[in-house]
Amino acid sequence: MHSLLFIASEAIPFCKTGGLGDVAASLPAALAEQGYDVRVLLPGYPAALEKARSGVAFELCQLEVAGYPLKLIETVLPHSKVCHWLIDCPPLFGRPGNPYLDETGQPWSDNHRRFALLCRVGVELAMDRAGLQWRPGIVHCNDWQTGLVPALLSLENAPPASVFTLHNLAYQGIFSYQCFTDLQLPRQLFDPDGIEFHGQMSFIKGGLLLADRINTVSPSYANEIQTAEFGYGLDGLLRYRSEVLSGILNGIDTGVWDPATDPLLVKNYDRQTLPDKRVNKAALRQQYGLNASGDHPLLGFVGRLVEQKGIDLLLAAIPELVAAGAQFIILGSGEKQLEQRLSRLAQQYPGDVAVVAGYDEILSHRIEAGADIFVMPSRFEPCGLNQMYSLRYGTVPVVHRCGGLADTVVDCNPATLDDGSANGFSFDHPDVGGILYATHRAIECYRHRDTWQQLQRRGMSQDWSWQRSALAYQQLYQHALVLSERNREHP
Ligand code: ADP
Ligand code: GLC
Fold first, then answer.
1. How far is the CA of 302 from the centre of ligand 1 (A)?
2. Among 159, 443, 471, which Cα is nearest to 325's?
3. 271-463 has which CATH code?
4. Cβ contacts of residue 482 below 8 Å, gap of 6+?
5. Is the CB of 303 under 6 A from ligand 2?
6. Pick from 61, 149, 248, 455: most CB atoms within 10 A?
């Protein structure tokens, strides 16, 4: 059996701030189903430890790593084949709130220490130095918080094969040279062929440069990041590594995201009972004070309120779209000024625009079910999960054609309607004109029930499950093993 150590900074149900949390739960689960022996290593944030202790959890071992005494807590959730290891180290992880940001929205000042510890514990486990008599064949790292793992493994004798998955190049984990010395990492790593980046230390570079195999979360994003426009200064490195770089589209957890069985919905429905979707729309309109008279298309948005998601563009487009008969329900949390601008807009258009600031799992499911149209005007989107949830819920997506959005949404036009591939609407330029162009077309189409239902049924019948993508990861692991063997023979 293949053994896999999967390392991430968040995974549901222990901790989630975005799509990484979904992926770090459902990909290991799919691999375990396919026969892998999977252990997932996570930081022991207070809520994560509480979640673990609400089930069967025990202290696996005690370690001292980089001067920090810590405990490794093991838990296997009910109905799961995945074993989770949580690092219980109160000085670094024992603080409530966001895992990355303090109460003022700034990164925790000791993030370099916090995530270096995650990486160092990962390396101890990968090298079987924690006394567990378990050694993974593959170590799979995710995003900058785990980037030092491949870097440190590259200095070990006969390490396991390493894979680094990039979920978002906009977050790189860059810290000063002082932070590098503070961590007391091996000196040779502070080098252009290591984690040095323009005089600073880059966690992500450790993963992108030194993992045996790298990938990102959609084929289109894998191409985009090799260009200066989306490469954030790392496009040269990514082109240099293009032979070991690929894109694998994320899947979604179709057990959790299924309109036929989702316990969070007001009314369940499927392709056969599609008209029942309306009950969810009516409930949303009533609960959030949207005018219930008339058949207005309801547009939904759920996401982090950050520049990436293009919410500022949507804000500027909303007045014209409301004038065209659209209603909006928006759920998000993030930058305070965006939250404020959104709530001002809701006050300006009572009955047409509802805004909920915060993180709300239940409402996110209800918006997916109750909205007619789901808007994602992201400036860039490595994969994006919400458009896949929307497609599965018969909620037609309107997206900027980039990254994973381009790989999942097929724009509705005479040709794609004819060949049956149309499932949404897209636009090429991430600006207000682009959003208006695609959304007006969607609103117009909404009024033609037959065509609309054709789009809904197409999305609902597509397979967005992890099965296929997990197989692609297995091939990636095989390739990583071959490359790591080769590196061992010809270092
Ligand atoms: P990203 O990882 O860039 O945030 P994704 O589309 O991959 O984008 O994943 C976002 C995930 O987080 C989705 O599952 C989405 O439903 C969820 N999410 C984002 N913001 C909120 C929120 N305010 N309330 C509930 N769920 C949210
Ligand atoms: C990132 C990306 C998002 C992707 C998610 C999971 O946060 O922004 O597009 O879906 O990771 O891979």
1. 7
2. 443
3. 3.40.50.2000
4. none
5. no
6. 149
